[in-house]
Write a sequence for this structure.
């Protein structure tokens, strides 16, 4: 038995843990006392890490599909096939017709390799990952308002806040160690306010729960600004010296009276005053937000509205303050940082800037694509139009986690070629022509960046099963086969060093420096050799922050006579993403039936629906059957489903209407109809799978 | 008890390590103290200021282990081949917990195979850890007789080595030792008293315990605590006396392997019956049940002592802020 220090591979909090290794496998984990984020604690998912990467159902060799059936293959044969299929697609439709979807679960080194493979080997700008469906509006919105799209402050700032405002984030379930920190702050006297349409655990424990109507975020935030300006509660000095466009914002919210805001949001006028005063008058107020802000067709504007509130009250650039997006995946921050986005290179250097393109063309020895590429949803839409032919997906479970499942499945089937790099035969991998076996986080070296911009080092604890390899190794081998010699790295450390030399915000970071406890927070460069805990202390990257007036936008699809309920989506403490890892724990799998619909008891009574009874849920895009759970977590008229279960995939129902700026789909709101199944009748499970695909070995 | 004076714990440790795998609490460089195998005899032995993240539990009751294989219609038992090992530097609380688990797993061949192969070297605490209340729980701060093979006691200028079992006496063969000064017992007692004073009265534990057994805590109070329980399994994982497990079947070449894995009674599914009925349906009921197992009179009768040994690990590991001190304080409040 040995214990190897590592970083949790689930959410974006980035908790420290020790992998307990015995007989070449991870039998369990220990938490990490002294860790700057997790302080010796873990959530249910973190505690189940050993099961998540268990060898049981892991892929051990590459798989090639023939006549709808997978067969095992060697690396040589599989890579040769992938290379020739990409070459064929490039010849047929050119670089715009191929792309890579990288992985927010993989390391920075893997992600650097993925975007370099796309840009330098395939010559395409089509590189994206699942930040598209979690925080692309944060990158876009905070970029426009403040000049940088990450958490402005650190998780430890919660300890110094006088007020903590949580908007649209189920923190104690999804970012449990941040939720724990908020509760500790509350216990020592901080005021905790939760804005959420659902009565989450944290909302029940909060000092104030503001239960707004789904999708009325901008109305609420503008309404708060109206009250703040009307009462002179704004921070005049901060507005005068640090912000631009104050007059326009004041004029924009002038007519948005509390009565109007109350009517739009469903929040009582008194509660609006209470919240406006508490936030604006707190000496240090920390805003955390999640997908209840971003996953709307108005996602970018929602984020801008949050930034406007913080700027008007001067709650930025100091300890205990900030605008802090809580990122979903362990390395979604890192995948963005590494440039796995169609419009930026590593370190957020813009593709649209010719000097940047020239810099990377020189460094990589290959001319660079002239313009930003397609987003992940853009790629699937182009596939449906026949313009996009070959796709590589690294570790993302698109079939379960992307909106409008039927449409996504049609897009995958419309491709000439799909290669998936995965730990197990995921639902997405079943659609692939070639599946390549990847090493898990415990089986490779590398780094993760958590949501507070903290880069932390992983240590390889065990060997990968069978012939599985790290993503960067797979990509390097494929590059070699496609005639590109610029990815011959000997170690993850070398990948990192190449990246850090090209990306200014990370230029003073190296694997050697990350050996220190707690890692380093970027920007970490010559000017900030020990990293940066708090952004925007003295000025914003663009000089002054921009106050950008934005207006309330209703969800694309609101309840009507045919689809009378508002469906929103959520996550559960016990599960993660498409469930591929957490559902391997017999304990977590036992906790929750495979699929649930949360419904208010009043609505259930009206429908004659009992606890655990089967129910058919239909939207304009698809239907599924699951079981009802009666709870006042949701208000009457609104129902909610988690997205972890392939057996009851809420994303068969969700809407792919998109934010025009970030192309974030509106996962948080659509309209559904409910039909109770006869009591005693089990829900029917229909998996979204290609017709013939089976692999006898799995 | 035979008592010797010892110049350095490393000399004893390296003597014991010659024929056994040796584990000791080691700093991991990242802020944690973990039980690690000693690979380098030059590594110093550092007296822990706080308990290691895990107790000794996992050395005997493995968090994950195969019980049997079913292959071609036959069951094949998979009892571990335990190699001789020594756990060096176990605190009194953790040793009390080992003794408690010895009773629970008395007829468990997997537990007993590892336990029989293990030499236990205890370490008296010279200072209280942050959350500890072993003095009150009668499990420390000095190592209790019958719970270890050898006991180390750090005094101001030197170390005492006490022989606590026959096996402890045997393993010292070949190690040159001086007899301890005549007043060693008084010095040891005085140190233990000092640690007990550091831990204070622990009034909230006493009041909480009385409330729990007097059944004066209403269900609303338990549900208020339950709302803070995430069901993470942290408390039951680090608790040195928790012993619940669940089955896990894994397919293997030609059959299946039946494993057992640590379970947690704070999970909703722990007591869920096939009919759907659940005696621990609400989080409050599950929190109450957990603490009743640690402080309830029935369990004290059955196991000869409380299920809690006062190590305080649950205080440190609980993200809901409902470790032992917080729970006992809340339920003990009038």
């Amino acid at each position: 038995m040995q214990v190897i220090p590592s970083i949790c591979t689930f959410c974006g909090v980035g908790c420290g843990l020790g992998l307990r290794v015995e007989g070449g496998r991870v039998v369990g984990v220990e938490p990490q006392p002294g860790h700057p984020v997790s302080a010796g604690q873990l959530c249910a998912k973190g505690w189940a890490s050993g099961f998540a990467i268990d060898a049981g159902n892991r892929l051990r060799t590459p798989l090639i599909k023939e006549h709808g059936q997978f067969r095992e293959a060697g690396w040589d044969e599989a890579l040769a096939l992938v290379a020739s299929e990409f070459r064929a697609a490039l010849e047929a439709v050119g670089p715009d017709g191929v792309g890579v979807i990288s992985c927010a679960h993989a390391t920075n080194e893997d992600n650097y390799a993925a975007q370099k493979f796309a840009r330098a080997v395939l010559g395409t700008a089509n590189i994206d990952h699942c930040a598209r469906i979690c925080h692309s509006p944060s990158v876009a919105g905070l970029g426009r308002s403040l000049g940088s799209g990450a958490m402005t402050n650190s998780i430890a700032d919660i300890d110094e806040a006088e007020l903590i405002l949580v908007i649209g984030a189920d923190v104690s379930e999804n970012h449990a160690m941040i939720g724990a920190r908020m509760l500790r702050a509350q216990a020592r006297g901080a005021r905790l306010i939760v804005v959420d349409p659902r009565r989450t655990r944290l909302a029940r424990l909060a000092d104030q729960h503001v239960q707004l109507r789904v999708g009325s975020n901008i109305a609420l935030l503008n309404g708060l600004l109206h009250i703040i300006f009307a009462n002179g509660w704004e921070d005049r000095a901060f507005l005068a010296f640090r912000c631009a466009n104050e007059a326009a914002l004041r004029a924009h919210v002038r007519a948005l009276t509390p009565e109007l805001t109350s009517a739009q949001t469903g929040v009582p006028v008194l509660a609006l005053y209470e919240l406006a005063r508490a936030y604006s008058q707190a000496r240090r107020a920390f805003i955390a937000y999640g997908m209840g802000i971003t996953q709307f067709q108005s996602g970018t504007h929602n984020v801008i509205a949050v930034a406007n509130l913080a700027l008007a009250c001067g709650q930025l650039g100091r300890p205990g303050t900030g605008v802090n997006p809580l990122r979903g995946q362990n390395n979604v921050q890192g995948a963005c940082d590494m440039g796995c986005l169609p419009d930026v290179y590593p370190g957020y250097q813009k593709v649209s800037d010719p000097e940047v393109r020239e810099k990377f063309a020189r460094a990589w020895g290959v001319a660079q694509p002239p313009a930003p590429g397609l987003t992940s949803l853009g790629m699937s839409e182009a596939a449906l139009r026949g313009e996009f032919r070959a796709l590589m997906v690294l570790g993302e479970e698109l079939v379960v986690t992307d909106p409008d499942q039927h449409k996504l499945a049609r897009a995958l089937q419309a491709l000439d070629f799909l290669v998936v790099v995965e730990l197990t035969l995921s639902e997405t991998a079943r659609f692939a022509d070639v599946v390549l076996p990847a090493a898990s986080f415990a089986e490779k070296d590398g780094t993760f960046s958590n949501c507070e911009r903290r880069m932390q080092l992983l240590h390889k604890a065990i060997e990968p099963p069978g012939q599985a390899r790290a993503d960067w190794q797979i990509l390097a081998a494929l590059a070699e086969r496609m005639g590109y010699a610029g990815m011959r790295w000997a170690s993850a450390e070398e990948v990192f060093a190449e990246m850090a030399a090209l990306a200014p915000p990370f230029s003073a970071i190296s694997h050697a420096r990350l050996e220190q406890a707690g890692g380093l927070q970027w920007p970490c460069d010559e000017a900030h050799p020990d990293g940066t805990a708090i952004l925007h202390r003295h000025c914003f990257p663009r000089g002054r922050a921009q106050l950008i007036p934005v207006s309330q936008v209703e969800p694309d699809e609101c309840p009507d006579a045919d689809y009378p309920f508002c469906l929103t989506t959520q996550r559960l403490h016990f599960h993660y993403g498409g469930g591929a890892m957490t559902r391997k724990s017999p304990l977590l799998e036992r906790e929750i039936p495979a699929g649930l619909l949360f419904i208010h008891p009043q609505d259930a009574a009206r429908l004659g629906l009992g606890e655990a009874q089967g129910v058919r849920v239909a939207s304009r895009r698809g239907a599924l059957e699951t079981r009802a759970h009666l709870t006042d977590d949701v208000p009457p008229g609104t129902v909610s489903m988690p997205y972890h279960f392939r057996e009851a995939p809420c994303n068969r129902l969700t809407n792919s209407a998109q934010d025009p700026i970030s192309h974030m789909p509106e996962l948080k709101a659509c309209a559904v109809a409910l039909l109770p199944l006869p009591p005693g009748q089990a829900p029917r499970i229909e998996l979204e799978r290609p017709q013939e695909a089976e692999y006898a070995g799995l | 008890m035979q008592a010797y004076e010892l110049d350095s714990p490393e000399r004893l440790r390296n003597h014991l390590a010659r024929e056994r795998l040796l584990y000791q609490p080691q700093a991991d460089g990242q802020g944690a103290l973990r039980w690690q195998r000693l690979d380098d005899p030059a590594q110093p032995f550092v007296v822990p200021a706080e308990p290691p993240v895990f107790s000794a539990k996992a050395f005997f009751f493995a968090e994950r282990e195969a019980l049997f294989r079913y292959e071609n219609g036959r069951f094949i038992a998979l009892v571990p081949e335990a190699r001789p090992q020594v756990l060096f530097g176990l605190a009194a609380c953790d040793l009390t917990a080992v003794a408690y688990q010895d009773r629970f797993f008395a007829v468990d061949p997997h537990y007993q195979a590892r336990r029989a192969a293990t030499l236990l070297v205890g370490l008296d605490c010279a200072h209280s850890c942050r959350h500890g209340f072993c003095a009150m729980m009668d499990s420390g701060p000095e190592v209790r007789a019958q719970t270890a093979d050898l006991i180390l006691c750090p005094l101001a200028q030197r170390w005492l080595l006490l022989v606590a079992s026959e096996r402890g006496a045997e393993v010292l063969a070949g190690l040159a030792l001086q007899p301890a000064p005549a007043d060693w017992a008084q010095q040891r007692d005085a140190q233990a008293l000092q640690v007990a004073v550091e831990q204070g009265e622990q009034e909230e534990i006493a009041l909480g315990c009385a409330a729990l057994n007097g059944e004066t805590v209403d269900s609303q109070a338990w549900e208020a605590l339950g709302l803070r329980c995430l069901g993470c399994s942290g408390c039951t994982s680090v608790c040195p006396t928790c012993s619940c497990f669940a089955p896990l079947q894994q397919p293997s070449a030609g059959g299946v392997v039946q494993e057992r894995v640590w379970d947690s009674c704070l999970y909703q599914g722990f007591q869920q019956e096939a009919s759907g009925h659940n005696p621990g349906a609400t989080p409050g009921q599950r929190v109450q049940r957990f603490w009743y197992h640690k402080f309830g009179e029935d369990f004290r009768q059955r196991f000869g002592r409380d299920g809690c040994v006062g190590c305080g690990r649950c205080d440190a590991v609980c993200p809901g802020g409902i470790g032992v001190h917080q729970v006992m304080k809340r339920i003990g409040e009038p």
About this structure: The CA atoms of residues 395 and 442 of chain A lie 15 Å apart.
